[in-house]
Amino acid sequence: MKVVIRVDASTEIGTGHVMRCLTLANALKKYLSAEVLFICREREGCLSEQIRKGNFNLKFLAQPARLESFNYDTESSDISQAEDAKDTLLAIKRCPSFLMADWLIVDHYGLDQNWEKRVRPHCHKLMVIDDLANRQHCSDLLLDQNYYQNMGSRYREKVNKDCLCLLGPNYSLLREEFSTAKKAQWRDTNPEVLLFFGGADQVNATQHAIEAILPIIQSLGMVHVVVGASNPHAEKIKYLCLQHEKLRYHFAIDYMSKLMQEVQLFVGAVGSTTWERCAVGLPGIVVTVADNQLQLANDLDAMRVHTCLGTFDVGVDFTEAYQAQIFKTMRNYALWIEMQDRSMDLTDGKGCRAVTNIMELAMNSENNNSF
C-alpha cells in the first residue's frame, strides 16, 4: 500500500497534526505494510526529524512567493489552495512510486474541498482528518476523533453524500501502547502530577502552571513537566525545573503512556493528549490555548471527564484556580474515580487499529463498489 500524507507543523500552529499522522503512519506500516510519503512545508518546528526517524519519506513544498497567502490559521483563499494542491502533486511526481497512491491523507485546517477536488483524481482514496467542522470537504473518508455533544450532526452538510465519517474518540489515533496500558491509580498522599501544554506551547502556559504549583508543591509528589520538541521556551523551563527537586523535566519523550500510568493528575492543555489520558483514566485539569479547543473542553467538562478552568491568557492569573482545583480533585476520591470512569468510557485506546482496518476494507472493496 502506498500512502501520501499532506500535513504541517510549526511553532505557530503546533505539532498535533503531524504527531497524530505519525501515529497513523506507523500503524499503516505495521499492519498494512504501507510505504508512506509525508508532504510538508518547511518551517520552524515542522518535526522533520521525527518524520525521518520513523523511516518515512519526506518532501518539502516550495515556500510560496506570497507567504501571507498561506496563513493556515485562517481560511485560505481558493488561490492559495490551488497553489498548494499544485505543489503537492509536483512533490508526488518527484517520488514516482507514489503516483496514484492508494490513500492520500490530508490533515490541515487551511485546506478544504477546493484543494481536495484538485488532488482527488490523483489517488485511489482520499481521507480527511479534521475536528473543526467549519468548511466543506470532498473525500472518501473523514475522521474526527474528538468528542462533541453534537458530533453526530456536525458534518451533516459539510461532506459529500458518499463520504464515510468516523466520528468520536473510539477512532482516536493513539500509539499502540495506549491500547494495553494499565489505568492510573489513586494515591491520597503525595500525588504525582503531569504537566503538558502541547508540543509547541507558544504562549508558555507551562511556566505559568509551574509557578502556580510551586507554593503548594510540598503537598505533592513529583511534578513531571513534559516539553515538546517545538517548544520555544524549552531551555527556560528546563532551567526552572533544575531549581526544584520536585520538578522533573522531560523533553520530547516517547514514553507518555508510561508516565501517565504513574501519576495521579494531569494539568495541561486540551489537545490530542486528551485521548491519551482518557485511555489510561487519568483525571485532568485543563485550559484551552486555542479557540478551536473551546467546544471540546466544555463538552468534556460537562461530562466530568476533566475540569476546564477557561482559556489561558498571559494577562490572566490562574494561580488560585490551579491550586484550588488540584486540592479539590486529589482530596475527593469519589470525584477522582468518577472522572477516571467517564474518561475510560470514551475510548479503549484501539482507535488507530480500527481506522487502519477500515482503510484496508475500503481498498479491498474498491473494485466491487461496496465501500
User: How many structural domains can be distinguished in the coordinates?
Assistant: 2
CATH class of the largest domain: Alpha Beta
Neighbour order of strands in the largest sheet: 3-2-1-4-5-6-7
Distance N terminus to C terminus? Answer: 17 Å
Give the overall pLDDT as a whole number. Answer: 93
pLDDT below 50 for ≥5 consecutive residues: which ranges? 66-78
Q: Give the name of the CATH architecture of the largest domain.
A: 3-Layer(aba) Sandwich
Q: Describe the biggest sheet?
A: 7 strands, parallel
SSE run? EHEHEHEHEEEEHEHEHEHEHEHHH
Derived from helix and strand composition plus strand pairing, the structural class reads alpha/beta
What's the short story on this structure?
The protein is an alpha/beta fold. The protein is 34% helix and 19% strand. The chain folds into 2 domains: 2-174 and 349-368, 3-Layer(aba) Sandwich (Rossmann fold); 178-344, Rossmann fold.
Secondary-structure map:
Layout: E1 2-7, H1 16-32, E2 35-41, H2 48-53, E3 57-61, H3 78-93, E4 101-107, H4 113-119, E5 123-129, E6 141-144, E7 164-167, E8 193-196, H5 205-213, E9 223-227, H6 234-242, E10 247-251, H7 256-262, E11 265-269, H8 273-280, E12 284-288, H9 294-302, E13 306-311, H10 319-330, H11 333-344, H12 351-364
Parallel strand pairs: 1-2, 1-4, 2-3, 4-5, 5-6, 6-7, 8-9, 8-11, 9-10, 11-12, 12-13
Helix pairs in contact: 1-12, 3-4, 5-10, 8-11
Please tag this protein with its features.
single chain, alpha/beta, Rossmann fold, 7-stranded parallel β-sheet, 6-stranded parallel β-sheet, 13 strands, globular
